[in-house]
Amino acid sequence: MSLFGLPPIWIAPMAGEAASSALVAAVSAGGGFGQLGAAYLAPARIAEIAADIRARTDRPFGINLFCPQPWRRDDAALDAYLARLAAWHAELGLPAPARPTQFEEDFEAQLQASIAARPAAISFVMGDPGAARVAALQAQGFKVLGTATQVAEGLALQASGVDAIIAQGCEAGGHRGGFLGSAEGALIGTMALVPQLVDALGIPVIAAGGIADARGVAAAQALGASAVTVGTAFLLVDECPLSPAYRAALLAASDADSTLTRAFSGRMARGLANRVTRELEGAALPAFPQPNAASRLMRQAAAKAGRADLISLWAGQALALNRAPGTAARLVAALTQGWRA
Q: Which Gene3D superfamilies match (predicted)?
């Protein structure tokens, strides 16, 4: 029996460049479960993209949001970070970096836009949405999922009533989704994390991290996962609007090019090592989301200029397994071969 009547192959809800209606719709139409990473999207934009997904396919899809992050504005640390960006701004022909006027979108407004879009599932990362919010969403017919990087987080999310847990192993690309303890203390691999969560919980577990082909899918299922999410491999499908510089960097990457860094956003994330991650390694940074907002202009300009050394190249550890797969439907079919019905 499939999880919630959905296919077993899900695309990871990747924010940023991959938050594309064409990509999400192609995954769902191709036999997988498409998910929109909406964390950086304005509420109106969530509505627009969701409408376009529905115009492209009648298959179900999901929406993912970052839980609100506790953070304190630190202008001194932010100014020091901006000073580090100044030379790179100059290389790109940009004006000197300035303090952002907005650091993040309004979470409650994003959530209301997501509810109005009527996805099949709403998932959360970087926190516990809380029992009241979970119950309210379920009462409106949504499946609600939370993200755990350790058993304690899975138990907390289960206590809040979520329908399933996404087990984010340390191999996964992008931002770490944990919310209890230190990020460094929750770097548990998918192979170890999934069975521990399966044993500890009474709700389904979805495996995420380092899954790029049918072998990874089969392994996750053998560990007790009820579905899998795949991120990096989908960045290379035809429908993903990835910048040429990002795509070329992924295609050239080897297994040792992966790193964990706070350099671009202030929060630990996995991606390809480049000039920024190396030069800011160990630097004291203001808390997320301050660097994320401050570095956005540089990253956008660098992507347009083909400068992979100055953009965040989020990617998981299965780098050598991620090679141009053609369409999203083709990749979904290849991954599904690893799943036992």
A: Aldolase class I
